[in-house]
What we know:
Layout: E1 9-10, H1 15-21, H2 33-38, H3 40-53, E2 57-59, H4 67-70, H5 72-94, E3 99-104, H6 118-132, E4 138-144, H7 147-156, E5 164-168, H8 187-196, E6 201-205, H9 209-226, E7 231-236, H10 261-273, E8 278-281, H11 287-296
Parallel strand pairs: 1-8, 2-3, 3-4, 4-5, 5-6, 6-7, 7-8
Helix pairs in contact: 3-5, 3-11, 5-6, 6-7, 9-10, 10-11
Amino acid sequence: MVNRVRALTLLDGGMGRELKRVGAPFQQPEWSALALMQAPERVEQVHRSFIDAGAQVITTNNYAVVPFHIGEQRFAEQGEALTVLSGQLARAAAGDSVRVGGCLPPLRGSYRPDRFDAKIAESNYPTLVKALEPFVDLWQAETMSCVDEARAVAAAVEHSEKPLWISFTLLDDVDIEQPCLRSGESLQAALDLAVEVGAEALLFNCSLPEVIGQAIAQLGPLRDQIAPELELGGYGNTFTPRDPEAEANAENAEMREEVSPEHYAEMTAEWQRDGASILGGCCGIGPAHIAAIAQLNK
């Protein structure tokens, strides 16, 4: 039997909605990228607030620095420079005591495996990797909705010596017997991909915390058998269940007020008992939630 009690690594929470909460410029289609363009000091402020809450890893704020959000022309002209800035701001906030994860996001909108384009991925991911390389300690493939999308990210960083964390988003259905990726692909397929590309961690993010809990509970024993060195984790959101074709960062997305810091921390404690060792938050999870997880783990 594998000992599944592992040291906790605490991530930050959702950058976009925290930027909005502190008064940073925030609108569609630029989303969180707008703060990089107009108020970068707010980005560093939010990074520091998550660090003060206990985050040991913060993620660069370039999730929306992709053509889908800032447009093809602006990405061609400013994409690399904005991504560099996101790395600089995260590194400045983190110093030497906190690690920085380099965000490698979906390129054509979240939750949409049907939009994945291998040629676009092959063209754009290297730009993000080049821009972030000097500033980050690890790579974070975030909100991957299908295995091929995650494989494309892995290909873009295959020559890097920095570890890769792959995080998939799950179908928001608490009644489904077997949690699955937004593409319908299985948890086993996600685990197989993580092992295939030599990922250090397999996570689930930007999904209902309850579904993430189900996924970790089911995947924990498989991980223990197949790849016991692989870290598991999750960082959920506070959205209400989303329509399969909804965008993760729709401005009118309804948030669940009942997912309080204390409630969320209790849910992540269950994930830990089922084998997770990397915990954090996504959309709607703020510094108070991260602080509650940190407090529960003292």
